[in-house]
Each structure stands twice: as C-alpha cells, then as structure tokens.
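Worked Example 4.2. Consider the chain below.
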Amino acid sequence: MKSKGFIDWILRLLKGMLMGTGAILPGVSGGALAAVFGLYERMISFLAHLTHEFKKNLLFFLPVGIGGVSGIFLLSFALSYFMENYEVQIIWFFIGAIIGILPALIKQAGKRGRTRKHLVITAVTFVVMMVGLVLMDRYLNGSVPLNFFTWMMAGAIAGLGMIVPGLSPSNFLVYLNMYKPMTDGIKNLDLAVIIPIAIGGLLIVLLLSKLFDYIFAKAYAGMYHFILGVVFASTVMIVPGNFNYLSLGTLVCVATCALGVALGLWMSRLEERYKPEN
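Applying the procedure from the previous section yields the following structure tokens:
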C-alpha cells in the first residue's frame, strides 16, 4: 500500500532527525537512539556488507540519512539558544523519548531468547558503564589545537557514537573544548570543519561495522543485552542534577518528558504497525 510506504518513509525520516540531534546533543548517543528505534542492527549489517542488496538498503536508509543531516544542521542553529535557556527541559524530552521506546528495545533484545546470563550481561554492563562515565566526567578534561587532523579525530569520535550504542561523542568534545567550535562550524557551513569531521566519521564507521556485524551474527542476544545496559547507564547519566526541581520549571520538565515518552511510544507503535519486510 502506498500510504503504508509513505508513513514508513516519514517514520524513518523522523528517526533520522532524532538520531542526528542525538549525535551532537551532549549526553545523548546516536547509536543508542538507532538501537531503540530498531535501526541499529540493519544499519551495521548494511555498512559491513555495502555491496549486498545495495540499492534496497540505500533506499531504506535514504530518509534516515536525510533526517540525520537535517537534525544535525537544525540543531546546530537552535542548540546554543535552547541549551543555554532550556537545557534541563530539552534533556528531559530526550529522556522521555528513550523511556517511551525502551519497551520495544527490550522486546527486540529477547527476540531470539533471553536467559539469566543475558540479564547478568545487562546488569554488569550497566554498572561498568556507570563507573566509567562517572570517572570520565570527573577526571577527563583538556583541550587540543583545532586543525584538519584534530577535526578528523572529532569525526572519528562522532562515528564511534553511531557504532557503539550509548557512547556520547559530544561529551568527549565538550571535555576537549571542541564542542562549541564544532557546532559553530556546522552552523556557519565551515568546510574546514565539516569535511574532516565527515572523513573521520566515515572511516571509523566503515572500519568497525564489520566487527559489530560479526558480533551480532555470533551473539545476538548477548549483544542486545549489552546495548540495554549501555542505554540504561547513559540515560541515567544525562538526568540533570544541578537544577531546582522544587519550582515552576519542574512542571515544564514533566511536560517535556511526557511529550518525549508519547513520541517514543508513538514511533515504536508505528514501527510495529508499518514495519517493512527485510
């Protein structure tokens, strides 16, 4: 049905936009969003085997790519204003969206079976990630010179965020004092920033996609339960702490979180209803 195909196309466009915003929003992982949106496994398989059903996969991911680029550019314009004036409320919206889609991700993780071992994998991953993120937040800080090679490094870090679910590249870039120059460069269409970032990101994605595709083939349930642990930890870590929740702003946070949950549930239900054949 044409309407079904159109809705699925728009759904993938919206997912791509959220993944794009997640790629540059501090504390959020584009890879984790790809996982909760049900795109991660197929994306890794496509990147690992580019020539296999290339046209079919290209058409499938075309709206995702358009949405991702749109999300990055749109957010680069709006980010400085909203993060400066409504940071807590925006982050709660993203938390809500992840919460809304988590049931679908949990269902996907158990699609090929779930044992106590897999629950242990999730728990251990959650603890290790929490410890690592806390230590990183506390001790990792510095700066690097801004040139072609360091922007390639920034792109490689961004690419890791798409390949490793839960890894937030923006956090590293904030610590390296590269985040604001990056968003300014994207906003101003500075090719000296955009081109090396694109090269670094593409290289790391192509190099690591085969490894992650192999892991999925050999340990599907284990990998997805690892992703669950990472998503849980990264979501907990972005919960704003320095905010007066005993204020009118709390109601706005509740509202934006509820909107995020509603969006996540809506997208996961549409995904189930209009899920295309592989």
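Residues 123 and 193 are 39 Å apart (CA to CA). The longest helix spans residues 54-85. Compare this with Example 4.1 before moving on.
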